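Tokens for MMPL family transporter. Go.
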Amino acid sequence: MLLSSKRITAWAVLALWVAAVLAAVPLAGRLPDAVQAKSTAELPRGAQSTEVEKLADRFRVGDQAPALIVYARTGPGITPADRAKADADRRTLAPLATAPIGPPQASRDGRALLLAVPLHDNDDLSGNAKKVRDAATTNVPRGLQVKVTGPAGAALDTGDAFRKVDKPLLLITIVLVAVVLLLTYRSPVLWLLPLACAAISLQVTSAVVYLLAEHAGLYVADGMSTILNALVFGISTDYALLLLARYREELRRHEDRHRAMAAALRRAAVPVAASAATVCLGLLCLLAAHMGFNYALGPVGAIGILGGLAVVMTLLPALLVVLGRWVFWPRIPRFGDAPPARGGLWDRAGRRIAARPRLVWALGAAVLAALAAGCLGVHTGLDRAHFLTTTPNSVQGERLADAHFPGDESRPLQVVSGRPVDLRGIPGVARTGTPETSADGRLTRTAVVLTSPPGSDAAKRTVERIRHAEPDALVGGGAASELDLADAQAHDRRVVIPLVLGVVLIVLIALLRALVAPLLVVATVVGSYFAALGASWLLVRYAFGFPALDVQVALMGFLFMVALGVDYNLFLVSRIREEAASAGHRGGVLRGLGLTGGVISSAGLVLASTFGVLGVMPVTMFVEIGVLVALGVLLDTFVVRPVIVPALALDAGRRFWWPGPLSRTPARPAPDREPVPRA
């Protein structure tokens, strides 16, 4: 990293990054091609429903995701023209199907038809489902509703939702970050550098993810690029802001800007690297998850963090020393300039906190507790009808199917066993299909229609009864998949959350060489998480009108808030530790808060903006994650980090650093004004 601060090597670093970007841009543009669009890609690892899908290739019809076309009338009933339309669709779609399409099935009330079109469950699923929908919605008789649902219809609607917003979302993110940077620096040039580094980080990261997906089997799910955009833009800009703040300080101490950059890198490298390690290790804890999306996000997110770290700590220093001091215009830091005078916002805040620190942190904790009280009313578990913020074609079709066809006719269970199964007499089973034999003759697969819809508790209890009655069989599809998803999500919360807390605590202990300070910092971040969770639930319930939080939100929100929220406290406390070595504990706390307050607040606004942009997504889960993380980061930036943590540090005194050496060092009063260092 120090190489980029030297005269000759700075140009070499720039040349290397230019070559890297030229190579990365075309590969990054192909990242959408690496997304696995299979409807089963996100099933839990090791679950029965997942094993059933893996065995699908052993049967003649293979791995399928049917497109279910529902034809319904609200009037007296299906007409001959409606039947002719369904028969015409059956003939038109026959070349697209993976097996013969059966005749349309009529509902008992005579007002609906159901046509099942078997499609391959592969990366072409969304495209084939679109062909089905286009054909089904052409030349429709007047008064007839035609909707495409089933796994293929859901995959099509989800893919459409992401494709429509990916580019606009990235543009909104760039604009918001640019506005925050302009307000922060009030410079016509300087704001471009962090933004350019964030954009380059995203291109390089996307290229690496694409290469690993194509050649190393890395799983990239729908929506992964959306999370990656927010994460890389936010974290890269944060690191750039911190390095720029240090560089500005050192330019006042060193006449030569290369020496100033070398000093800035030495002092910023440890907290920035510790921050990156905290976030990376926290994300990699997701490798213990069972859910496919959670498991995949770990390595993809860690790659994004490392990409941002590499760009900010090599390319940005090279750009700064090549361009010179003028990039800070109109507020150019000159050698020998006095440090900014005391009396700034965070300096004044620190002195007021120091007057009564115990009262301050107690009031701050009370605010967090009041917001956290909203968690008491949280409802979790969105149904399929609320997966998107709109009501797409597949959801409308599922409602029509549920209204006219019994139970889970549209999504039956699949029972795979080494012998034919007998499910007669099991409560909740409506009927079973004809057993199908695998190509090698060793397995049978039986479709089982239940009396209850797949998402209902009654259907899940029926699955448990079938699994108990047939312990040697594998039960998947329909309600079994819903049950396995709920179990996997509960497992991930139980396992991943303690792992993340443990990793964060270990990194803080290693960096701060203390035990009390890391425990207090982690406690404040956890408190801000529950406060943000309570506040975000009230917001999404009463402002957005969502009936529940997606089960993924609690885990994703915790991961991002704790891993990213600890960053700001890490930057603050590491600077306090640095200043306390020369100014004593109390002086170190006040000086550390005054020196880092502005830059960390700006960094928090950037990160909150990048995640807040998720609020315009059409996917409910992403909206809820965006709201939760944005609120949490703002709480951490303006309440926990600048108020509660300094108050706790001041109240604890030197015990804050126990058992490290600073806990035994007598406090020395800080000078009223920092002396201007010589060259």
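The radius of gyration is 29 Å.
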